[in-house]
TrEMBL record:
<dbReference type="InterPro" id="IPR000888">
    <property type="entry name" value="RmlC-like"/>
</dbReference>
<dbReference type="Pfam" id="PF00908">
    <property type="entry name" value="dTDP_sugar_isom"/>
</dbReference>
<protein>
    <recommendedName>
        <fullName>dTDP-4-dehydrorhamnose 3,5-epimerase</fullName>
        <ecNumber>5.1.3.13</ecNumber>
    </recommendedName>
</protein>
<dbReference type="InterPro" id="IPR011051">
    <property type="entry name" value="RmlC_Cupin_sf"/>
</dbReference>
<dbReference type="InterPro" id="IPR014710">
    <property type="entry name" value="RmlC-like_jellyroll"/>
</dbReference>
<comment type="function">
    <text>Catalyzes the epimerization of the C3' and C5'positions of dTDP-6-deoxy-D-xylo-4-hexulose, forming dTDP-6-deoxy-L-lyxo-4-hexulose.</text>
</comment>
Length: 431
């Protein structure tokens, strides 16, 4: 299945290219430099209870959660002039990291049964006519692009809206990321919702309602791990919609990978060591589950060079794990957990780097651990990440068979020189 249409014009499931490592583990690349949101819903029964409608944001939703879980979506086309205007569609679906639900601007939607499910929203933005953008006639802003109405709304009272039709440029997403970096960390209220109120004169007013954050919604900005420099948990930029739900904004420029680790006990068979990239890992899954990470500082000259640390954690969409280049890491207990990685390049020559080959694999019990010279950090421009994502899109478009991500080993050749060898195999098809 590449695309599955859903009876409302433009409403559809799109397949995402993926790679498999073994029978259950799946890797889903998302080659984009644009702003992406991780939406969390808590673990108690969750239902929106009302429709939400966007004029200028087209949602691209990938649902992550237990394979047995079922959720329901409800949709109404509210676009002026649409051939499916006010058509209603209801679907039941299970979470699946290898497909995304596209909800066009102007299609109202609500979901039930999203508890235990996390949503990746790689939304697309559409702008009003250019002549309105820089005037007081501009009817649209991303932060308030939401119209809510009850599920019980009568057919004759359903809204009908003009939607934005001009696709936003790359610069728009860059500016939006900058804006969220500057503002989201300072929010002390939940994401607003709208309600209509009729005053004594019969005039309808739309109210924007905000609620102040509770103490339990505040998260530590940084939590270091065991005195290994640069290793620790960093708070995401968060927007809450209630006590348990909201979204985390991923505003970095690098491409994203989603890794599903399956349902059976999961552990890596080797340490992974990046020499040029910093991992930025968000783990989502059952909040009571405990997973384990083993670290070794393999940075030559580091104050903690050679130090080994074992760290336990539970998955949370509220923060990401920062693993600097040269810090080896190995995981255990990631079954039922999804890892979302948006890595950040720290050093190296971009012209010689092939994605997926930056990681070295080191046997778990082999000692002494290796030691590497890590280049001083440098910044890579947005143009580099854009070129990288374009190359990844091209690679994924040409891929004709599922292959695993490579294992990169250090080996010695006949003259004693150390070489890197990347091993990749055709992965077994799912099912």
């Amino acid at each position: 299945m590449k695309t599955q249409e859903l009876d409302i014009q433009g409403l559809r499931w799109d397949a995402l290219p993926s790679m498999r490592n073994g029978a259950e583990s799946v890797v889903v690349p998302m080659p984009t430099t644009d702003l992406v949101h991780i939406v969390y819903h808590g673990e108690l029964p969750f239902a929106h209870g009302r429709y939400g409608l966007h004029r200028g944001l087209e949602d691209h939703l990938t649902f992550l959660g237990p394979l047995h879980k079922k959720a329901r979506g409800y949709f109404i086309d509210c676009r002026t002039g649409s051939p499916t205007l006010h058509k209603k569609v209801a679907i039941e679906f299970a979470p699946d990291a290898t497909r995304t639900l596209v909800i066009p601007c102007g299609v109202a939607h609500g979901f039930d049964g999203l508890e235990e499910i996390y949503t990746i929203n790689a939304f697309r933005a559409f702008l009003p006519p250019p002549q309105y953008l820089m005037t007081d006639k501009n009817p649209w802003a991303t932060g308030t692009d939401i119209i809510n109405f009850p599920y019980s709304t009568a057919d004759e009272a359903l809204p009908e809206v003009e939607v934005n039709t001009y696709p936003a440029s790359e610069n728009f997403y860059e500016l939006l990321s900058e804006m969220q970096r500057a503002t989201l960390g300072k929010l002390d209220y939940e994401f607003p919702h709208t309600e209509d109120m009729v005053d004594a004169d019969g005039k309808v007013h739309t109210l924007l309602i905000k609620k102040t954050l509770s103490p339990k919604q505040h998260v530590a900005e940084w939590e270091a791990i065991a005195d290994i420099e640069g290793l620790g948990w960093k708070k995401h930029l968060l927007v809450w919609s209630n006590d348990v739900a909201g979204y985390a904004a991923l505003t970095d420029n690098g491409p994203i990978q989603i890794i599903g680790h399956g349902e059976r006990h999961y552990m890596t068979d080797a340490y992974g060591i990046h020499l040029e990239w910093e991992d930025r890992l968000t783990f989502v899954g059952p909040s009571q589950q405990r997973a384990t990470i083993r670290f070794i500082d393999c940075r030559k000259g580091s104050p903690s060079e050679g130090k080994e640390v074992t760290h336990e954690f539970s998955p949370s969409a509220l923060r990401m794990l920062i693993i600097p280049p040269g810090v080896a890491h190995a995981f255990e207990g990631l079954e039922r957990i999804f890892t979302i990685n948006r890595p950040y390049r720290r050093s190296g020559d971009p012209d010689r780097f092939e994605p997926g080959h930056d990681v070295l694999d080191w046997p778990l019990d082999k000692r002494p651990a290796p030691s590497f010279d890590i280049a001083p950090p440098r910044e890579f421009p947005l143009s580099y990440y854009r070129a990288l994502t374009e190359a990844q899109r091209g690679y994924l478009a040409l891929q004709t068979e599922q292959v695993s991500t490579p294992a990169v080993l250090l080996v010695r050749d006949d003259d004693g020189s150390t070489k890197r060898v990347a091993l990749r195999h055709i992965a077994p098809a799912s099912g």
